[in-house]
Design a protein that fits this description.
The structure holds 4 protein chains of 4 kinds. Chain B has 11 helices and 10 strands. By secondary structure, chain B is of the alpha/beta class. By secondary structure, chain C is of the alpha+beta class. Chain D: Heterotetramer of one alpha, one beta, one delta and one gamma chain.
Chain lengths: 181, 293, 86, 384
């Protein structure tokens, strides 16, 4: 079983990201579970969402404490939240930042930085970073196919909004695949 | 046209001799017609009509709780609508269930404008539990929880104006009536039941036991309420006052003095100041509704 | 007789309770002064006054509680209340 | 067909497939997504029902009483404070023998205010006369709605039911479920056939009062219907298994219980975590198993006594507490095992959304082995 923890701020679509990754993984024949860290946080507050992926039925219901993967929607979170807490060796951290690195992660954790905000602003016209980060996650982990992610995004958003979000995800996907992130 | 021959209220019920509510309900059922479902909240009416297995109701009838009659009626109306059925939904409840504890459900049902008619038989206190005050108890009435005493003149508050509250909800038809004017009462029920949407009638229903008069005086006391201006029969259509019964007004003491609940205004000595306050209420009613001939 | 599920009843047994036993005074109807207005029929809280013929109204004494409302409101003073004596 | 969706939406779909004619509900976290989804279905003509936007939970269930007596299949959903506001109406609906089905997205009770999960809300209504079913996952939550309507509407039963699933932990979780088709559900659940109804052509008085000459007999009949519901749940659960392949033929379920020396007893979503923890403990040679209670009312006391007869120790995981006594499940189990020599320990845990991990299950198992129990587990000692 692989576990993903998404760190974001209220309003950034962390829960949606978790759900769409689960939907995409399920489409690929994997058993998936996605859920938020249930809270009363409002816009701007640090929030978390979780995904579990497995070849077997997932029964575990606790939150994710030792993730294989993390997504950090906003690198400013790193100041106040220990986003790398409990990460497994060999894990992958995808961080949205304009910087190229310099984060202290546990031993053996691979950090992929990507300027998802820039991509989102250019493709969607809004700082909606979650779809770009889903694309980066797909490329970095191989857990989900891009076409499945595309379908998942299209299943959630309509028309032009779906198109621009898919473009955003695609760009991030290709950047990470090409090692340009 | 009201069919006065309709008799859907069975003998054998356990109301007090001379009960205003029982008399009013017989008239209500004539005005409502045969194709009707009645909802009653907990109260005197419910208790005196339905000790298992003896029911006084010859129309379909349901009691659920004290404060939820309007919500139960909402559900019945929704169900009938879904089934394409024609029955009218009629709530008949006392003033406690209506103006106090059931106000939330009542407000909700009227805001949603279910096609129901809610009738409050107003006997101006909680008669079922032993004559405690309600939000409909008139000023200065002595009840078991607003007793007159050496430093109390009885109920300190004026009647809550529920007809106005429900008219403000946008009810297409709100009326008041009195059992002492049966033709008017039955016609208003017929109008309310046949008006689409949530309609309301508040019926003045004197209670011989609770108010303190002999059972043969029920209608006479009801008439005095109208004649003194302490109760006004009127109709509001879409929130606009249409019609109020005009009277040549008598002094309020003619109404007050025949009821034990106001006895403290006259004994041990006549309290001019308090009687004047009640006269002022009647005067205000007369001015508001333009009832003076 | 087994209980009705949910504590329900069909009409019928309401009349089992003979409220005539509550009565201290009983009404006497006089045809001569009756106007046939039927206000007594309408106002009776029991609904126990029946029309049996022209100006002939009869209270069902199984149910009449003797409240006297009919007598009080009769415009022709055609109803009087008498004490039950045995 | 298997699909992945949020638990609340899985429940809403299940409700839609059951064809309720009147839905009456008031939104409250974490139940909101269910009633929002149903409102959307009605707005899009995917559900042919009257949806009453009531002004409170009290009215929500009251309107269901009206609609049910008028002859419609009805549905509502609530949780926590909303259920507490319905308290009086719950007893009333059960006493009137109305087959209303209501989802409870389990949540803690105030004060202090908590929107998070435990099972205090529905447990506190244990005496109200509602059947109470608890779901381990969203598939079970979905399926139990079909089962509940089938059982409740049986004219030999005529009782209302809570289908309980843990708020947030299940209600807000995306996971795959096998969604039955309308044809399949129609084949399982016949159209609503009211036992009696409000009808001008055949007037009946509902909700009469009972004098001391009758009241006890009505309560006894209610109790008998509840006890008959045990058999009905097994029967319709078996029918469900035959039709859908998923086994709800038991009021309880065992996991690694046959040779277990220690039995954990739990209800709801915690069972999944417990099963994973058991797998780990089994690898370490600990003979531990799970007894999962799916049906808390009627309480399967005899079934539980039989299932636990061979164990040495029982540890009950209670997501509730009867303040001044113990956890409600613990009390019931102690009653069911009365007279046996089995050591029974109760653990109050997970209140107000406190997360429960596999390591907690291991720790509780250890406590039970050591003979230490009847306690709150996982308290933050530094706060006390």
């Amino acid at each position: 079983m692989r576990e993903l923890r998404i760190h974001g701020r209220g309003g950034q679509g962390s829960v949606t990201a978790a759900e769409l990754i689960a939907v995409a993984a399920f489409a690929g024949g994997v058993y998936a579970q996605a859920f938020p860290a249930f809270g009363v946080e409002r816009r701007g507050a640090p929030v978390q969402a979780f995904v579990r992926l497995s070849d077997e039925t997932i029964r575990l219901r606790s939150q994710v404490y030792e993730p294989d993967y993390i997504i950090v929607q906003d690198s400013t979170l790193i100041r106040d939240v220990n986003v790398f807490a409990g990460m497994k060796p060999g894990g992958i951290a995808i961080v949205n930042t304009e910087k190229s690195g310099g984060y202290e992660a546990p031993e053996g954790v691979r950090i992929i930085t990507i300027d998802a905000t820039k991509i989102a602003l250019e493709e969607i016209g809004l700082p909606i970073t979650n779809t770009a980060l889903m694309g980066a996650f797909a490329a970095a982990t191989g857990e989900i196919d891009f076409s499945a992610l595309e379908d998942a995004i299209r299943g959630r958003f309509e028309g032009k909004l779906a198109d621009t979000n898919i473009r955003s995800a695609q760009r991030a996907f290709e950047m990470v695949k090409g090692g340009n992130a | 046209m009201v069919d006065k021959s309709i008799e859907n209220f069975e003998c054998g019920h356990r109301a007090c001799g001379g009960c205003g509510a029982a008399t009013a309900v017989r008239m209500i059922l004539k005005g409502a017609g045969e194709d009707v479902i009645v909802v009653s909240p907990t109260g005197c009416l419910e208790v005196f009509t339905t000790p298992y297995p003896e029911t006084a109701w010859k129309v379909p009838w349901i009691h659920s709780l004290f404060e939820n009659a309007a919500a139960v009626a909402s559900g019945i109306e929704a169900s009938l609508k879904r089934q394409g059925r024609s029955e009218k939904v009629l709530v008949i409840g006392g003033d406690g269930a209506t103006v106090d504890i059931g106000m939330l459900c009542l407000s909700g049902a009227f805001e949603r404008n279910h096609d129901i008619t809610y009738i409050c038989y107003d006997n101006e206190a909680y008669m079922n539990t032993g004559i405690q005050r309600s939000g409909a108890t008139p000023f200065d009435a002595s009840t078991s929880t607003s007793p007159a005493g050496s430093c109390s003149m009885g109920n300190k508050h004026a009647k809550k104006d529920v007809p106005a509250i429900l008219a403000a909800h946008g009810s297409p038809y709100v009326a008041t009536a009195s059992l002492s004017y049966p033709t008017d009462l039955m016609k208003k029920v017929e109008t309310a039941v046949n008006t689409p949407g949530a309609t309301y009638i508040q019926i003045h229903a004197p209670c011989c036991t609770g108010w303190g008069f002999e059972g043969d005086q029920t209608v006479a006391v009801g008439k005095l309420a109208i004649e003194t201006g302490l109760w006004v029969n009127y109709e509001m259509v879409d929130g606009v006052l249409r019609k109020a019964k005009k009277v040549k007004r008598k002094p309020v003491e003619e109404y007050l003095s025949v009821q034990k609940r106001f006895r403290h205004l006259f004994k041990p000595k006549r309290n001019e100041e308090e009687i004047a306050k009640i006269q002022a209420i009647a005067d205000a009613n007369a001015a508001k509704f333009g009832i003076d001939i | 007789m087994p209980l009705n599920i949910g504590c329900t009843a069909r009409p019928g047994r309401g009349r089992d309770n003979k409220t005539g036993s509550w009565r201290v005074f009983y009404p006497i109807f006089t045809e001569e002064t009756c106007t046939g207005c039927e206000i007594c029929v309408l106002l009776c809280p029991e609904g126990c006054i029946e029309k049996k013929g022209e100006k002939k109204y009869v209270p069902d004494l199984d149910y009449c509680k003797g409240c006297g409302l009919c007598a009080e409101e009769c415009p022709g003073d055609a109803i009087t209340m008498e004490k039950e004596e045995k | 067909m298997k699909e992945i969706l949020e638990g609340s939406h899985a429940v809403a779909e299940a409700v839609r497939l059951c064809r309720p004619q009147v839905v009456s509900a008031y939104p409250i976290t974490p139940q909101t997504h269910i009633v929002e989804a149903l409102a959307s279905m009605v707005a899009d003509c995917k559900l042919d029902a009257e949806y009453i936007c009531v002004e409170s939970e009290f009215s929500a269930l009251s309107a269901c009483i009206g609609a049910s007596t008028a002859g419609s299949r009805t549905y509502s959903a609530t949780t926590s404070q909303g259920l507490a506001l319905m308290y009086e109406v719950c007893f009333n609906a059960a006493g009137m023998r109305l087959p209303i089905v209501m989802t409870i997205a389990n949540r803690a009770m105030s004060a202090p205010l908590s929107i998070w999960n435990d099972q205090q809300d529905s447990i506190s209504l244990r005496d109200s006369g509602w059947i109470q079913l608890y779901a381990e996952d969203n598939q079970e939550a979905l399926d139990l709605h079909l089962l509940a309507y089938r059982v409740c509407e049986d004219h030999d039963i005529l009782l209302p039911a809570f289908v309980c699933f843990d708020g947030f932990i299940l209600s807000h979780t995306y996971e795959p479920v096998d969604m039955p088709t309308q044809e399949e559900v129609d084949a399982y659940l016949p159209a609503f056939n009211p036992y009696q109804r409000l009808d001008a052509k055949d007037p009946i008085s509902f909700g009469m009062y009972a004098t001391p000459d009758y009241y006890m007999e009505f309560r006894y009949e209610n109790q008998r219907a509840m006890l008959r519901a045990k058999e009905a749940i097994v029967r319709y659960g078996t029918l469900f298994k035959e039709q859908f392949g998923r086994d709800y033929s038991g009021l309880i379920e065992g996991y690694e219980l046959e040779d277990a020396e220690i039995a954990l007893v739990a209800m709801g979503s915690i069972c999944g975590t417990v099963k994973d923890a058991i797998d780990e403990m089994r690898k370490d040679g600990i003979k531990v198993g799970l007894l999962k209670i799916r049906c808390f009312r009627p309480f399967p006391d005899e079934e539980i006594a039989a299932a636990l007869a061979h164990v040495k120790t029982v540890a009950i995981l209670d997501k509730n507490v009867s303040l001044g006594s113990k956890g409600a499940v613990g009390l019931e189990i102690k009653d069911a095992l009365y007279g046996s020599s089995i050591a029974v320990y109760d653990y109050i845990l997970g209140l107000g959304g406190r997360d429960i991990r596999k390591k907690d299950i291991r720790a509780i198992t250890k406590l039970a082995e050591q003979g230490s129990g009847d306690m709150f587990y996982g308290l933050r000692e530094e706060l006390l």
